[in-house]
């Protein structure tokens, strides 16, 4: 079955690296890659207090369109060096919408399976870990998984995927299927990591752990616990000590993910700029 993947791009090297990474993740599978560039004209035309987006046929729009088409031509030429699978098809999308809105529209229109985005990491004191756009997609897109790929990442198959959890679930196999499929394809081990807040698991946590184990039955997996450490320090140390290749979260309100990626923690989790982060959708 053809997999449809949306990749926002700003034509940077880390954006190119993200495309290379996802192509390597599915090297022998038929995939349709939709490269999305959300173009912002600066400045917008202003009438009163309203911002008016440039329309087709107007000079700002047409100039931006031509510039973007040329950038895509160069970008695709660079990418062609790394593409070897004839079943990897590429389509380009240019829009004047905000990135989040454009991504959600593309997901709905093209029935996208996954969004993949290159990230620049921490490049300055005021720069968020994954950048504002990546954070918006990771938090705002609930229709499909989002994979954030850091710059300078070595292109290699993930052999270990860390899945931090508090065991509170609820877990559904359809929510975890992308992580499981990646693990099956690359013979990866899924490390389920629980950072203990108390000595004993609650009944709800025990049931959640058992359900998770049943879902992961057909893939290599292991369970790990850490004591008396903070969440961000625990995960960081675990990944660093094992040279893990990917981290996966389930994105739902009031979840482990949302607590982990609250703004104070985002600025502290510097190590995550070195490993891809897979944000799995949560179905109700």
What labels describe this entry?
9 helices, Rossmann fold, alpha/beta, 284 residues
Q: Can you walk through the features of this model?
A:
This protein is an alpha/beta fold. The chain folds into two domains: 3-150, HUPs (Rossmann fold); 160-280, Rossmann fold, CATH 3.40.50. Helix content is 37%, strand content 23%. The protein is built from nine helices and twelve strands. It has helices at residues 13-25, 59-80, 99-110, 132-140, 173-186, 203-215, 231-242, 256-260, 263-266; strands at 3-8, 31-38, 45-47, 50-52, 88-95, 114-119, 146-150, 160-164, 189-195, 221-226, 246-250, 277-280. The strands form two sheets. The protein has a ten-stranded mixed beta sheet, with helices on both faces. It starts with a strand and ends with a strand.
Kindly summarize this structure in a few lines.
Helices cover 37% and strands 23% of the residues. The protein is an alpha/beta fold and 284 residues long.
* pLDDT < 50 runs, ≥5 residues: 41-52, 122-130, 263-271
Text of the CATH class of the largest domain? Alpha Beta
Topology order in helix (H) and strand (E) letters: EHEEEHEHEHEEHEHEHEHHE
Give the oligomeric state: single chain
User: Order of strands across the widest beta sheet?
Assistant: 5-2-1-6-7-12-11-8-9-10
Which shape, going by the Cα principal axes? elongated
CATH topology label of the largest domain: Rossmann fold
Strand content: 15-25%
Assigned CATH architecture of the largest domain: 3-Layer(aba) Sandwich
CATH superfamily caption of the largest domain: HUPs
* Rg (C-alpha, Å): 20 Å
Question: What is the averaged pLDDT score?
Answer: 81
Helix content: 25-40%
| Total helical elements | 9
């Amino acid at each position: 079955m053809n997999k449809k993947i949306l990749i926002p791009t700003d034509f940077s090297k880390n954006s190119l690296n993200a495309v290379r990474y996802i192509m390597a993740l599915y090297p022998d599978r038929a995939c349709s890659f939709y490269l999305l560039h959300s173009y912002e004209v600066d400045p917008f035309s202003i009438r009163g207090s309203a911002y008016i987006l440039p329309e087709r046929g107007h000079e700002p729009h047409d100039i931006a369109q031509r510039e973007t088409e040329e950038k895509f031509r160069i970008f695709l030429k660079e990418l062609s060096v790394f593409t070897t699978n004839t079943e990897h098809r590429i389509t380009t999308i240019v829009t004047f919408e905000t990135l989040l809105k454009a991504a959600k529209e593309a997901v709905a229109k093209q029935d996208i399976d996954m969004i993949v985005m290159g990230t620049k990491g921490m490049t300055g004191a005021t720069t968020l870990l994954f950048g504002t756009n990546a954070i918006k997609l990771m938090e705002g897109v609930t229709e499909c998984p989002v994979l954030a790929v850091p710059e300078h990442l070595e292109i290699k198959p993930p052999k270990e995927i860390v899945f931090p959890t508090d065991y509170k679930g609820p877990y559904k196999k359809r929510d975890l299927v992308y992580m499981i499929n990646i693990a099956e394809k690359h013979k990866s081990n899924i490390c389920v990591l629980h950072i203990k807040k108390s000595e004993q698991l609650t009944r709800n946590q025990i049931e959640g752990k058992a359900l998770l184990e049943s879902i992961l039955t057909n893939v290599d997996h292991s369970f790990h616990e850490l004591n008396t450490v903070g969440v961000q320090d625990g995960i960081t140390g675990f990944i660093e000590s094992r040279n893990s290749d990917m981290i996966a979260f389930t994105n739902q309100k009031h979840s482990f993910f949302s607590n982990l990626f609250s703004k104070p923690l985002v600025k502290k989790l510097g190590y995550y700029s070195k490993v891809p982060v897979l944000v799995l959708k949560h179905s109700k």
